[in-house]
Here is the input.
Amino acid sequence: MSISDTLIVQEVATRDGFQIEPVFVPTPEKIRLIDALAEAGFSRIEVSSFVSPKAVPALSDAAEVFAGIRRRRGTVFVALVPNPKGAERALAAKVGEINLVASVSETHNRANMGMSPDASIEGFARIMETVAGSGVGVNATAATAFGCPFEGDEPEDKVVAQVERYLALGVDGVTLADTTGMANPRQVARLVARVLPLVGAERLTLHFHNTRGLGLANVLAAFETGARRFDAALGGLGGCPFAPGATGNICTEDLVSMAHEMGLTTGLDLEALLGLSRDLPRLVGHDVPGQVAKAGRPCDLHPAPPLKAA
Here is the structure.
């Protein structure tokens, strides 16, 4: 199939999903899940985060996880990095790519990162110096690109300006993140249409949350505008601890099922994903939002009920 028939899904459950879980998922379980996700065909998996263990205790084992996973050819293993020290730890762990995050929203970035967006981006320049020459890729995320729970709508010009600053730093890719699930399809189409010419479809990722039930509709709006890369989390895990009311990411297996029903290719083993999703409640201690794992695929038919006697 051509690129026009391809929808690329990038898995973020073991970072964005596990980071807010109150139960610590044991390191061997994380490794087992990441290995299984790689075998299911993902080209990118956001494995963990090299942040302070005090800030995100659920991911305090990032180095151990990276040391334990199998490095599958064709899969890039990603870590979120907040500062040069985190970048040094990520390089030591032999990550394939680091992800930098700054919010478009001043208020959200101060709540999330403890500094202004300008200060965050200035810090990214030092991280780029740390990573230079290592062969490790760098992606930069514009969080709250579609709205902030504290400030409301963010002007599109402000989002585009942040993307341009990222590109000026020399990053390899850019993500537009709907951190709090405030986006709607028409808004998504407008912003993607402005950013795509700057970044290109191969380097642009969309990161949607399903807080208000519009996650897959927003994917479709972005896809039809020309975007091809999307983050998702197995089972619909995740959420932002600094965004009131924010729920999980769009669900990986639900997105893959939709894409396959539309005749698109993802390169992913949906049956394997469904099996992994159905095991998530055991790991996190609660039900997860994913729907296809509960209802089955549309092609999973059931026996007809017995006919009633006349």
The first strand starts at residue 8 and ends at 11. The two ends are 52 Å apart (CA to CA). Residues 117-131 form the longest helix (15 residues).
